[in-house]
Amino acid sequence: MKAFVRTSITTQEVELQEVDIPKIQADKVLIKIGAFGVGIHDRYFIPSEVSFPYVIGSEGAGTIIEKGDEVTDFNIGEKVIFTTILQIQGGSWAEYAIAKQSALIRLPNNLSVEQGASIPIAGKTALECIREINSNNGDTLFIAGASGAIGTMVIQLAKEKGIRISASASAKNHDYMKSLGAEHTVDYNDPAWIIKVKEWSNGGVDTALAIQPGTGSDSIKLVKDGGLLITVSGDSQTVIPERNIEVRQMGHQLFSNEEMIELINKISQDKIKVVIEREFPFNDAVEALKKTETRSARGKLVVKIN
Ligand SMILES: NC(=O)c1ccc[n+]([C@@H]2O[C@H](COP(=O)([O-])OP(=O)(O)OC[C@H]3O[C@@H](n4cnc5c(N)ncnc54)[C@H](OP(=O)(O)O)[C@@H]3O)[C@@H](O)[C@H]2O)c1
Q1: 125-249 belongs to which homologous superfamily?
Q2: 39 Cα–ligand 1 center, Å
Q3: Mutate-to-test residue for ligand 1 from 83, 193, 231, 296, highest number of ligand atoms within 8 A of CB
Q4: Is 298 close to ligand 1, i.e. is its CB under 6 Å away?
Q5: Measuring from atom 39 of ligand 1, which residue has the nearest CA?
Q6: DSSP output for the chain
Q7: pLDDT tens across 230-271, in order?
Q8: Tens of pLDDT, residues 118-164
Q9: If you measure from the C-alpha of residue 115 to the centroid of ligand 1, how many angstroms do you get, rounded to a whole number?
């Protein structure tokens, strides 16, 4: 099969190569992939002990074409959304992948494989963000980097809970963030953006969610005394705590498949939108990766396999 691979631990270059189709084990299925999601983590997020060439990728959607003896909940021919995070046998950036039964969710009939492939990583991270911020109806939330893959989902999930949202991105994304549910928007290039958020929130927001790396240090300035700052990209260490504000890096929480299924059901009922800025053809997957690495994607990028 054709697959995008890393060829060694020392180089992070990603290459298109011909490799063997992975062999299933008893608790796994073999999937003919229809589309896979693209994330900034895809180039470097690989298990510590793997053999090369290693097929990269964490998420996708496609059709089950073979299954192991212990797979009881899914059948050959079913379309599924799946994750392959840190799987020793390789990931989703290929024509075929294997995945554990526990990493599968049925693709609703009214969603395309491209939509399905865009959901798992951003969707799970957004659910984790909502759980971490623990805000309720009427609370104020500032989101730094709200027009990307995670922010697109977080705005909608927070709005659903009645949370009032101020969101940052460059000006071209302001109408977009408002269309998702942001009440107030700021441009991080505007020197007055912190003051504007403080004015909007009458002196400081209850919680800030710093999604983009490096946004934690500025975001803490617009949190009210004793409020909460959650960082998503690991910069909690560089934030100097002040005014009894709790600063925490978002942790990884165990999620039951039920919570992801609930999110996917909301998407299939059009209560939550998935936004795919661009679908790339298979041969252009590395171009998609480079685009996501510019940190300027609106919503999600996916690669489709015809
Ligand atoms: N903790 C976890 O489990 C986890 C999981 C997945 C991802 N992540 C991390 O989360 C981060 C975000 O991921 P993502 O996929 O949502 O990002 P993304 O899609 O790359 O986000 C891009 C968006 O962020 C905006 N942006 C860029 N720089 C900004 C800044 N300084 N301030 C405000 N907005 C800015 C851009 O808007 P403009 O184009 O308008 O500038 C763009 O629309 C990544 O660093 C990723 O590694 C963490």
Answers
A1: NAD(P)-binding Rossmann-like Domain (3.40.50.720)
A2: 10
A3: 296
A4: yes
A5: 296
A6: -EEEEE--SS---EEEEE-PPPPP-TTEEEEEEEEEEE-GGGGT---SS--SSEE--SEEEEEEEEE-TT--S--TT-EEEEE-TT-TT--SSBSEEEEEGGGEEEPPTTS-HHHHHTSHHHHHHHHHHHHHH---TT-EEEEESTTSHHHHHHHHHHHHTT-EEEEES-GGGHHHHHHHT-SEEE-TTSTTHHHHHHHHTTT-EEEEEE-STT-HHHHGGGEEEEEEEEESSSGGGGPPP-TT-EEEEPPP----HHHHHHHHHHHHTTSS---EEEEEEGGGHHHHHHHHHTT--SSEEEEE--
A7: 999 998 889 999 999 999 999 877 667 889 999 999 999 999
A8: 999 999 999 999 999 999 999 999 999 999 999 999 999 999 999 99
A9: 19
Query: Which CATH architecture group holds 2-119+274-304?
Result: Alpha-Beta Complex (3.90)
Domain locations in the chain as residue ranges: 2-119+274-304, 125-249
CA of 70 to the centre of ligand 1 (A): 38
75 CA distance to ligand 1 centroid (A)? 36
Do 125-249 and 2-119+274-304 fall under one CATH topology?
no
